[in-house]
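Model: You mentioned two targets. I'll fold them one after the other.
Researcher: Yes, keep them separate.
Model: Target one:
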Amino acid sequence: MNDLQAYIDAMNGLIGSKSSRAKYWANLQNMLQEAISEGDQMIDDLYDRLRDPTTPPNTVFKLCNFILFTLERQKYGKKRLPHLVDRRSAVYPLLAALKHPDEDVQQHVLSTLGWLRNKRAFQTLKTIALSSDIRDLRLAAIKALGNLRHPESLTILLSIIMNREAPEADRQEAIMANLWWYKRKEYPLIRSTLATIAQDDTEEINIRAKALYYLSFFATPDTVNILYDFLEHPIPNLRFWAVSGLGNLDSQIDISDALTVLDNMVARDHVIVDRRHISREALRAFDQSYYRKLAVTAFKKYSPNTFLISPLAEYYDFSAQSRQAGYQPIKQTTTLNIDPRWLIQQITEKWHRAKINIRSPKPQSLSVDWFIKMETAPLIGGLLVDSYSIVLTGHKADVLTFAKWYQSIIDDKYTLRIYPWADEGILITPDLDVLIY
């Protein structure tokens, strides 16, 4: 490869490829070794282009991607990726690139400075986060401060969060700024700040909602109790983010005490928040809590995944279609109506040792539930009371096996999709061989 531009183009083509992860890193390693052979002149060229305010925006984006991906410390086999770019030497050309006239370039550079995690960028990021007149630059700098993990970054972020005079978007961005990456000794202060915001009835609803959700990244019994308190809150936005946060917690803390409330939410709380149903959002916490009870050994060994099978647009697809409809909830219906007795018969004929209706307490939200020992791990599932959708929790390979079988017994006129929790649907076909999301 003769010049930097050819290398950058090849690198970004590789980044966008759909190769398996192992092949991706193997190819990346080979490309980095090839780049090293080009010598220092190549890096000097890269830095000169960053400093040049006339460099086309798309080229600056590629240069930033190049820097970040050469700094990755991912492993492939027993080999570590070589470092082609030095963190210290890269900071100053990137800081110079902030003078580029294109605001999109400035945002991209700010993001790169954050991921670079070099303390020399702190003062510039702080200044932009606290005093820039340009909203998107402030938000990019706030996010970069979180990624920087500088000891003083946390102080800045918490001050933004607690400042009621700061723009709402800035406060939300600070709450979302990867606070869980800081040292554990900082966790009590972070938890206390988020809990204070979430429980303050005089605060903005959206700020409280964000604080509730991100509080779940700091799992303690007190965190669980705070989230419990909001599951039946009269404000839908707070209920939604509290139950979404509980979905994050169940892999770390037993939340079975909330099962009755979660069951009621799945069965009845069909209120839509930000183009998403509270009842669907509650499925993850609901079903994973039962999985913890019914498959204790597997729960400790695997990270169970929760999926929804439906003929209708759900989760991301529902949100996207509502957005296309002018941010109005779309109306959808289906004639698919599954008879629970018929489904029990089909399941027990396919899996003779399947256990039916073993959940306790018996869910109001499910017409029938099942427990099947699959090839990889136990699988639990249930037909929801709407009679057309199914929830499944277990290992992805086993979920896929069940989903393909289930589609095979349903009339061909119904197209079914399987939805990873809160994600877009994947069409279930006989040749579907992996659940990628």
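Model: Target two:
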Amino acid sequence: MNRWMFFVMFIIGSVFSGCSMNIPMEPVDYSLYEDGFRLLTGLEILDYDQVRLFPAKRVSVSDSFIQAVYLGQGTEAGFTAWDSARVTYSIDHDNQIRPHFQITHVFERPNSPTPDISVRYRFKDGAFFDFDTTVALYTYPYSSAEVFFPYKRIFRDADHNWIGSRVQDFILFDNCDNCMYVHPFGPLGIGKFDFTTSQFSVQINYGAGNFFTADSGYLFFELGAYNLYRYDPSSGTAASLWDSLGQGALQQIFSLSQFEEIYWIDGMTTWQHRLYVNLQGDHENNVPNHMLIFTYDGALVETLPFPRDVYDITIYHGYLFANGLSSDTIYKMDLSTFEVLATATAPAEYIEGFDIHKGYFYYTDSMHYMIGRIPLSALFDD
């Protein structure tokens, strides 16, 4: 018997030492045995929003004194049970009493990376004991995942229009050494969060868009999925690089009269002073995807067919990384041929934007209202 198993048996068993089989002779202060009940409780994260409660492995008790287990939330107003299970018992070959129960709970809207839960043990004498804990949902399916920044901290000092926002796209450190640029969902523009001062400032306001990127002192963003702009924060000026994408060179290249109806931008990034723009084609009209490569002045350098449906892209160490449009998959691709070299399960269920910096994969997690990060090596071997 290992040491911690003996510790659990001793703590919980001591509740009933010298007592009858079912009901203690005197009222018991179960709070004195909190450590034992915590060690008795196993908690497993099954999915991005799902947990399982069960007895920890190789735990035994001295008596069948626990009648039921509840999973819920405790507040000042009291305990609210979400799910419950009756406890059954068995005796193993070592003549140890083993408790058995299982509760599976799905969080409806886990808008926190670590939602608070309460576990209640109800005993046969009518008493009960509660303890509180948190669940690190963001660690599914990678235990090395971390909370980099909760959304509420980013927008804490922002204008009221930005407070409560969810981040759709972001860029780390590209235009400053200690900040990140963020673009939230909805008709808001790009803001900057300074890690040193914890101050948030709006860089530019514009209507609905999804993606942006940054390099060489510029911010590049799309508006309405079809229009591309270059913004210079130092001068506060925005220049239109391509108007509706189909009214000039691209219309001639693809021989399309209504470009914006069958193509839209689904990601952009920069690499070696080139702007990469991922165009998602309308497959119902047999329109394929393309990757367009531009200079920072808007000159089209190259037009390449692109084999995957993706949502957001970035380039790191000469490889293209992309987020699968309809699957929780991250692709690592050859930058020249766009051949898929490796795939990995995404560290969050609904990734909108991501970035890679100094060996870490940073990503939005709108289910848990945070930007998370995970070592890139946890996703890809090399």
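Researcher: Noted. Anything on target two?
Model: The chain is about 10% helix and 45% strand.
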